[in-house]
Amino acid sequence: QVQLVESGGGLVHPGGSLRLSCTISGDIFGIYTMNWYRAAPGTQRELVAAIDTGDHTMYADSVKGRFTIERDYAKRTVDLQMNSLKPEDTAVYYCNAEMRKRYSDDPRQYWGLGTQVTVSS
User: Fold this and answer.
1) Are 42 and 109 contacting, i.e. CB atoms less than 8 angstroms apart?
2) Strand, coil or helix: what is 65?
3) How many C-beta atoms lie closer than 10 Å to residue 8's C-beta?
4) How many CA atoms lie within 13 A of 44 on its CB side?
5) Backbone angles phi, psi at 45, to 5 degrees
6) Pair 87, 15: CB distance under 8 Å
7) Residue 89: phi, psi to the nearest 5?
8) Is the pLDDT of residue 46 over 90?
9) Within 10 Å of residue 66's Cβ, how many Cβ atoms?
């Protein structure tokens, strides 16, 4: 069973920082693009940050300069460092990865269950 498990969410004051981590487990042939999404209350899920196998990164305009995405190929983890947090960052954050479980499989998207981030004074 392939699993993606997020950790590191919680309650933080505006201007504070959190570091989210996603750990992938299971038998996996390959992991390609890794992503963080978020869904604020009443909104659609949006892509926050992405990193590919060439370590190219992409960030949503709303988080540029504040968030950093990093991956560890050996540990099969992807982290999201969030600094200068704002109330608007409050959301459930989801880990996502494009993966292939077997060499004969087509790549597909896998999702974690999410972790709550609340930014409030």
Assistant:
1) no
2) coil
3) 16
4) 2
5) -65, 135
6) no
7) -80, -5
8) yes
9) 15
